[in-house]
Par3/HAL N-terminal domain-containing protein (Accipiter nisus), 60 residues
Amino acid sequence: MKVTVCFGRTGIVVPCKDGQLRVRDLTQQALQRYRKAQEKVRAPLVFSGISCSVWCSLHG
């Protein structure tokens, strides 16, 4: 199973194996993957002072 966590227009896919991954761990992994993706395009990740739209989608 995998979950797509979207940060604005950017979707990050996080595998959660058998569905036993805690939400806290899932969000930490998604944020880590998002930061790595942003480093590749050299766009800084800044959360202070911005309203960030985040949503998730489950894939079975």
About this structure: The two ends are 5 Å apart (CA to CA).
